[in-house]
Design a protein that fits this description.
Structural class: mainly alpha
Shape: rod-shaped
Number of helices: 8
Number of strands: 11
Oligomer: single chain
Distance between the termini: 34 Å
Largest sheet: 3 strands, antiparallel
Length: 339
Amino acid sequence: MRITNKMITTKYIRSINTLSSDLDKYNTQISSGRAFSRSSENTSAAIKAYQIRRDISKTEGYQSNIDHAQSSLTNTESALSHIEELIQTAKGKILMANTGTVSADERKIAATELRSIQEQLLQTLNSTASDVYYFGGTNTDTPPFNLDSSGNLAYNGVSLNTITGSDKERLSSDSMYVDIGLGVSIIPDPSDPTKTIVDPGSVFQYSIPGINVVGSGTTTANGMTVSNNLYDLLGTAADLLENSLYSYDNIDAVYGKLSSASMDIIYNLTEVGAKTSYLDFMTNRYETQTLNLDERQVKVEGADPTSTIIKFKTQQVAYNAALQMGTKIIQPSIFDFMS
């Protein structure tokens, strides 16, 4: 069988292309740090790598949700602290004005200061961040608190003084939830078994319904019917201080109701603190989990630097040698000398 120059050239080119392809593969492994760039190169490792990347993506999603919830809780805590300061200031004003040594004019001044605190309280209850209301529950678009036709406080369109049991239950549980990896599950809707809802226990509640902060309904104080919510209680105290028929007992009774109602603020501050601590725990957990997943990803996808560099250098030597050999294998012809 006669071996032609064309056959030699074809086989040589095929070999040099193979060497060049392998050289490029090792060069890519060194620059990227990955053992393979296509799943076909290592199917088993590619499947494991996909599963690890999926877990990393889920963990990053949970961490993003946690960051959002932590930011919201921080804003909520700041607003609750400001409300607590306003109520403490109001209580101090009432105590100073509710004495026999204070004149009627001084009581009217105190009443004016209480109405100013009322306005500040309403503004704080309607606090927002990124156009989302802290205390609105699932209502994030419109101010949750406003005054009804009687000038009393209303929450999400329902007057807090005349709120019914079903409305109170609905608004008290109306909160924002986020998935932080607790295992979201679906359960039948207690109010309508033909429908399903997300199990509240499988997600994280990060918002505080405003009704749980200010209070609702009415009560009796020293024979008077007064509101249970902080805003209207401040208004009642201001009215009594402005009344020409000054009554120490009436104002003292309202002061007592205001003190009792303000305890809900302390409770909510404690709840926010507990939620924040839990999110810190989950953050540490996911940071550790992400670190472990990153290590697994390196083991599955990563190329050994030492081994890869040695293979690259060896292949480079072989490639250069093949180029030099080509000048001897492919014999020159008369056409090489033609110009």
